[in-house]
């Protein structure tokens, strides 16, 4: 059942990759939210 | 660090203070009852009107003001539409309706309307009408000179009666107010409180 | 924060009782914490079953399964059970288990009070639900049928279910107040030497504010329902217009408690989030002080905004404007919290174990709760949305996605600490994805229903609402069934499973991880010293 182990130490390389991914995703989300905001500004009823 | 070896602080003092807070909050809830009533009178918060005598004094928080002399001046430059409505509370086998549904009045003008109230049961019943005015800001300036809500009303079996109401919308009423609604709720006074599940006596 | 000395051991030699006797008389914070959590889990399913019956009735328009009276009873008792018997006990369970471990205290400050506090709960839960059973035997007309808000004059006129509920609320209130006093005293007086208030774990901070809010507002609710009781039976007229009282006063008193209550439910969750996010982002918590100040600000603001729950009851315009803006102001400190949560993850080396999945799900879905709350706080818009399904969807994003999913975050995060076993990660992930999917399937349609004008608390509806209601019901049943996975996962973790380390999660910080998993029955008998 309990097959998947808890985080038994990721390799340094893996951690670095994860950091980069988190940063990329952050920018992506920020751009998405900004986009929504701008669309909201432009839409006229 | 420095207090590493001091005795544990006494809990009792802190517990005492917290209990005081609990008691204070409980008392606060009850203090809200009179406070809220004062607030309503000052601001007209809940549509409590001016110019009314105390209805019943067996529970003092209704505290409504007594009638004062009408102000003479009539403001002919504008008019306010007053709408009349009313409901009978569950358990009171009456029906009521205003004979005038609405009326345009100049502030300061004395007006009179009537409600038709009918006892649909075959026994004599006493009821009490409780008024409410919306919007709240208008309530303070809505003055009743004569009203069937000033006293209890008794209707015989099947009796119908026209009940009068004379009022003035005082000129001090804010110019932004164009509509006022006056609503009555008629409550039965006798017997135990009616619940949703208790049966009506026809 | 670093620990100079740790003495995880404890004295083992003490007469140990087994069986029911142990649970009835225990004063050990871990035992009591476990009982709270179990009680909460059971009541979560009880409340869930009630609302599944409601959703089944709402599957199609028309009345199929039950009378409207029974429907009304189910929705009201569902809410009271979920709020008072599922969410609040879960938070108290966390507090009992974790606060002493996290602040390095040997136990709660008032262990005996702690035991009473718990054992008041089962009788209260029975009082709440007993009228259902009594009605089956022809006694009375069922449970409280006013909805959880007890609005007068309906509650003055209602049957004996109202009395049962009033009594239950009194008992639950006493229990919560005892718990709060205990937690405040523990945090103020029993912190490990060197742990200043500004080194206190955020979870304890969140609970501290909750405890103060409980103490300040629960007595007001107790007062309000006491007035209701005397109105019903002793001829007073607090809420009776015929006697000079005022039904709107009840709404003021109820929501003076009711609005802070929603923050009472959530502050412990907001407290535990940063711990989880920091652990799985492998970064220190971002903005500790900002979060503490936000907790305090939200606590203070929450007691001055209550009237946004009855904008439509009639209020002078200046009052409307005041309550609108003060309500909206709460979203500022709330936004600070969101910012800190996200900033904690920013550039972190994230990994996605079940607690982290729930934490991220919480942030996204609870964000929707906050945004829809802002819409409702707009007086002009609220005239349309008040008492519609839009409100129902809003507060389920707040209370299910914010509250219950927050609790699940904590359960998955700390379960290995409590039991000494790892839960099943596969089942945990399955539970998460099913929950998120079916939760949205249930409640997104309710936003649309509310916008289209479907009123809440009505057992029947117009035909144009049929499709969305059917979808929502299907979602609700998947959601309900998915929770069985959760219960099963907890069960197998309690029974066995891979052994958990003391520091269950590689990068977890805090005193609780210095102890073994499960921690010894008596921990921190010698307090650690924080530098
Ligand atoms: C920015 C944050 C929030 C704002 C501005 C907000 C605003 C509101 C407003 C204006 C209402 C009344 C709607 C109506 O009845 O017409 C409401 C209802 C409600 N909210 Fe929120 N809310 C917020 C966050 C929360 C949170 C965090 C919770 C719970 C943890 C919550 C739980 C509830 C509940 C339970 C109700 C409905 C109560 C009932 O009528 O039974 N809200 N909210
Ligand atoms: Cu609120």
Protein model, in words:
Chain A has 45 residues and is mainly alpha-helical. Chain A is built from 1 helix and no strands. Chain A has a domain at 15-45. The radius of gyration of chain B is 24 Å and the shape is flat. Chain B has 2 helices and 9 strands. Chain B folds into 2 domains: 2-68, no CATH class; 80-190, Sandwich (Ctag/Cox11 (Pfam 04442)). Chain B is of the alpha+beta class. Chain C contains 16 helices and no strands. The N and C termini of chain C lie close together (6 Å). Protoporphyrin IX containing FE is lined by residues 149, 262, 265-266, 308-309, 327, 330-331, 334, 369-370, 373-374, 376-377, 382, 385-386, 391, 394-395, 398-399, 402-403 of chain C.
Extended strand count of chain B: 9
The biggest beta sheet of chain C is recorded as: none
Percent range for helical residues of chain B? 10-25%
- What is the level-2 CATH architecture name of chain C? Up-down Bundle
From the spread of the alpha carbons, the general shape of chain B counts as: flat
CATH superfamily placement of chain C: Cytochrome c oxidase-like, subunit I domain
User: From the coordinates shown, what is the CATH architecture of the largest domain in chain B?
Assistant: Sandwich
What's a quick, concise take on this entry?
Chain B contains two helices and nine strands.
Draw up the topology in text.
The complex is a heterotrimer of chains A (45), B (202) and C (531).
Chain A: H1 12-42
Chain B: H1 11-43, E1 80-88, E2 94-98, E3 102-105, E4 110-119, E5 125-134, H2 136-139, E6 142-147, E7 153-155, E8 160-169, E9 179-188
Parallel strand pairs in B: 1-9
Antiparallel strand pairs in B: 1-3, 2-4, 4-8, 5-7, 5-9, 6-8
Chain C: H1 19-25, H2 29-57, H3 68-103, H4 111-119, H5 121-136, H6 154-157, H7 160-189, H8 202-233, H9 247-281, H10 288-302, H11 317-345, H12 354-377, H13 379-385, H14 389-419, H15 425-451, H16 466-495
Helix pairs in contact in C: 2-3, 2-4, 2-16, 3-5, 3-7, 3-9, 3-14, 4-7, 5-7, 7-8, 8-9, 8-10, 9-10, 9-11, 9-12, 9-14, 10-11, 11-12, 12-14, 12-15, 14-15, 15-16
Bound molecules: protoporphyrin IX containing FE (HEM) and copper (II) ion (CU).
């Amino acid at each position: 059942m309990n097959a998947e182990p808890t985080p038994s130490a990721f390799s340094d390389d893996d951690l670095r990759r994860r950091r980069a991914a988190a940063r990329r995703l952050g920018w992506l989300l920020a751009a998405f939210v900004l986009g929504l905001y701008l669309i909201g500004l432009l839409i006229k009823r | 660090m420095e207090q590493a070896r001091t005795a544990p602080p006494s809990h009792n003092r802190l517990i005492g203070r917290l209990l005081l807070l609990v008691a204070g909050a409980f008392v606060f809830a009850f203090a809200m009852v009179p406070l809220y009533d004062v607030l309503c009178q000052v601001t007209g918060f809940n549509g409590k009107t001016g110019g009314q005598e105390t209805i019943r004094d067996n529970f003092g928080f209704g505290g409504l003001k007594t009638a004062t002399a009408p102000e003479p001046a009539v403001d002919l430059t504008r008019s306010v539409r007053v709408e009349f409505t009313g409901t009978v509370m569950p358990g009171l086998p009456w029906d009521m309706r205003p004979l005038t549904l609405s009326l345009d009045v100049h502030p300061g003008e004395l007006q009179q309307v009537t409600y038709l109230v009918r006892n649909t049961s075959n026994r004599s019943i006493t009821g009490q009408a409780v008024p409410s005015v919306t919007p709240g800001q208008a309530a303070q300036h809505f003055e009743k000179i004569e009203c069937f809500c000033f006293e209890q009303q008794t209707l015989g079996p099947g009796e119908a009666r026209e009940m009068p109401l004379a009022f003035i919308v005082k000129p001090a009423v804010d110019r932004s107010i164009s509509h006022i609604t006056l609503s009555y709720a008629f409550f039965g006074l006798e017997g135990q409180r009616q619940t949703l599940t208790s049966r009506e006596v026809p | 924060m670093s620990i100079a000395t740790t003495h995880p051991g404890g004295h083992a030699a003490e007469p140990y009782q087994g069986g029911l006797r142990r649970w009835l008389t225990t004063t050990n914070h871990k035992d009591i914490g476990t009982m709270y959590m179990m009680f909460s889990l059971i009541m979560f399913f009880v409340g869930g079953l009630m609302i599944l019956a409601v959703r089944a009735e709402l599957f199609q328009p028309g009345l199929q399964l039950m009378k409207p009276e029974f429907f009304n009873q189910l929705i009201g008792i569902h809410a009271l059970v979920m709020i008072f018997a599922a969410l609040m006990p879960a938070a108290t369970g966390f507090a009992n288990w974790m606060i002493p471990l996290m602040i390095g205290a040997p136990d709660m400050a008032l262990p005996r009070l702690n035991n009473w506090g718990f054992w008041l709960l089962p009788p209260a839960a029975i009082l709440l639900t007993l009228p259902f059973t009594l009605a089956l035997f022809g006694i009375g007309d069922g449970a409280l049928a006013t909805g959880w808000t007890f609005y007068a004059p309906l509650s003055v006129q209602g049957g004996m279910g109202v009395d049962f509920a009033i009594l239950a609320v009194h008992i639950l209130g006493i229990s919560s107040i005892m718990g709060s006093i205990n937690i405040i005293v523990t945090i103020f007086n029993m912190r490990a030497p060197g742990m200043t208030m500004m080194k206190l774990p955020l979870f304890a901070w969140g609970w501290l504010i909750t405890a103060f809010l409980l103490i300040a507002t629960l007595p007001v609710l107790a007062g309000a329902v006491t007035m209701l009781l005397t109105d019903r039976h002793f001829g007073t007229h607090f809420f009776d217009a015929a006697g000079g009282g005022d039904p709107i006063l009840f709404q003021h008193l109820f929501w003076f408690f009711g609005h802070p209550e929603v923050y009472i439910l959530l502050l412990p969750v907001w407290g535990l989030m940063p711990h989880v996010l920091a652990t799985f982002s492998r970064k220190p918590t971002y903005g500790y002080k900002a979060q503490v100040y936000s907790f305090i600000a939200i606590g203070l603001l929450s007691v001055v905004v209550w009237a946004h729950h009855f904008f439509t009851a009639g209020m002078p315009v200046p009052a409307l404007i005041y309550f609108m803006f003060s309500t909206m102001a709460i979203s500022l400190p709330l936004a600070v919290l969101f910012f800190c949560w996200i900033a904690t993850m920013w550039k972190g080396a994230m990994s996605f174990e079940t607690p982290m999945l729930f934490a991220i799900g919480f942030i996204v879905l609870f964000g929707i709760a906050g945004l829809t709350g802002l819409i409702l706080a707009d007086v002009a818009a609220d005239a349309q949305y008040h008492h519609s399904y839009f409100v129902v969807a809003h507060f389920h994003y707040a209370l299910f996605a914010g509250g219950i999913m927050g609790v699940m975050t904590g359960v998955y995060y700390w379960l290995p600490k409590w039991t000494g076993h790892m839960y099943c990660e596969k089942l945990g992930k399955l539970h998460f994805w099913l929950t998120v999917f079916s939760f949205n399937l249930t409640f997104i349609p309710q936003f649309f229903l509310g916008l289209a004008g479907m009123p809440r608390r009505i057992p029947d509806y117009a035909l144009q609402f049929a499709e969305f209601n059917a979808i929502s019901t299907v979602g609700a049943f998947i959601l309900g069934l998915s929770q069985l996975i959760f219960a099963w996962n907890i069960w197998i973790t309690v029974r066995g499973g891979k052994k958990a380390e003391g520091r269950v999660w590689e990068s977890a910080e805090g005193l609780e991880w210095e102890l073994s998993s499960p921690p010894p029955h008596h921990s921190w008998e010698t307090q650690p010293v924080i530098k």
